[in-house]
Amino acid sequence: MSSFRLRPFSHWLLALFLTFTAVGQVAAQDNATVSKEGVTPGATAGAAPAAAAGSAPAGDAAAISAGDALFKGNCAQCHAINDVVVGPALAGIEQRRPLPWLIKWVQNSSKMVASGDEYAVKIFNEYQKQQMPNFALSDEEITSIFAYVKAEASKPANAAVGGDDRGAEGKPSGEVADGAGAGAGKYVNVVLIVLIVVLIVLVVTLVIIANIMRDVLRGRKDLDGRDVEMIDQKTDWMAILKSGWFKGTVGTLFVLVVLYESIQGLMAIGLQQGYQPSQPIAFSHKLHAGEHQINCAYCHTSVYKSKSANIPSANICMNCHSQIKATSPEIKKIYRAIQRNQPIQWVRVHNLPDLAYFNHAQHTQVGGIECQTCHGPIQNMEVVYQYSALTMGWCINCHRETPLNTKGNGYYDNLVKLHDNANAGAPFTVSSNGGTECSKCHY
User: Fold this and answer.
1) Where do transmembrane segments lie in this chain (predicted)?
2) Domain 56-154: which topology?
3) Structural contact between residues 110 and 51, judged by C-beta atoms closer than 8 angstroms
4) Which of 270, 295, 373, 436 could form a disulfide bond with 73, CB atoms 3.0-4.6 angstroms apart?
5) Which ranges constitute the DSSP H helices of 36-163?
């Protein structure tokens, strides 16, 4: 009679564990892909103009697109299309005042008030004598702003208001994306929990089945010695623990872990990723850049034209907070700094070593790099922290992977031609233009 033998089920457990682990990793990767949307260079800048242009006549699309960016960078902090903020709502402004008058007003409102212009004085008095800043914008730029305002005002009531990009239920598009990412994250967590529970149930079930089969086989009288030996076999854990191969494996793993942690510790010296100091005033980027969608360049005025992005001065804060939440305890700190003629002692978060040269304008203005590429989801931060490593390797990897925009620039024509001849199919990156040479950053 053929003998019954128990098949070991450890390999089944291993297969199940590996399967569930792989499923969990795939789900986590999908979630990471969702949560990083909107950080791609150029994505933020391109979305709003496309929406504005889509609702305007084809001939005005370029002007409206330019006006969209100018409005958000200069006007959105104090004006909305249909709502009164610091200044009046701008819907129908072209019917209230002629365009030449509006151009003069934007370029030098204080001069018009001082000249006694009836409408200028009326607006000045109506809005608590709040002086509008003068803007060094050309006539064409101001015209494009009001073209954008007119296009936005002509949209249906349930469309975007105040020039903001709105998603479902009137929420800013960034909030919709964050909500979708959060929902996907919850879904992945639920799936992983269910898979873990199923794995535990399967393991327990297999153990129970194995014990039942062992008890059944023990009761059989037709088993030979080999079958009995297999049924009654026990694991000698002490023998395993005392064996040379086990001690050697544990010792090797211990040495590798210590060596790995030591190298990681040495590599992390001077690395400030995650640094999040407390600031003297509780300023929320989530509120200003996120909810109110204030353009970064409004406060950091040199972000597109200087080596470094400057710290905003107190008078920029007062452009809004002379009227908005003027009695807030945090805003009163700004008033005290102005009264004492002392700068606010902001704590610097991002700081490169003096041996490395970095030009902010070269990356933002020339390269078209978005703020989030290096600073992370700044629009979601209550307190700013250093998002990226900012190490030399991090910079070099970016230079190796980032294509260089050479279209319409004759300076690169010959370089691109030589590059394509020598590297067929490879993109012309910053590194291809010498962006990884030592002297580019160290000289």
Assistant:
1) 190-213
2) Cytochrome Bc1 Complex; Chain D, domain 2 (1.10.760)
3) no
4) 295
5) 43-54, 61-74, 93-96, 99-107, 109-114, 118-126, 139-153
Tokens of 245: 């191969």
Task: From 66, 146, 140, 138, select the one nearest 98 (Cα to Cα).
Answer: 146
d(CA 347, CA 383): 12
Amino acid in the structure at residue 52: A
The tokens of 173 are what? 């598009």
**What are the extents of the domains in the chain?**
56-154, 285-441
pLDDT tens per residue across span 229-274 = 777 777 778 888 888 898 999 999 999 999 999 998 887 777 889 9
Q: Please count the residues of the chain.
A: 443
Question: Mean pLDDT highest for which of 24-28, 48-52, 176-180, 375-379?
Answer: 375-379
In sign, the C-alpha dihedral spanning 139, 140, 141, 146 is positive
How far apart, in whole angstroms, are the C-alpha atoms of residue 74 and residue 205? Answer: 67
Among candidate residues 346, 345, 350, the one with its CA nearest the CA of residue 275: 350
Whole-number CA gyration radius for the chain? 32
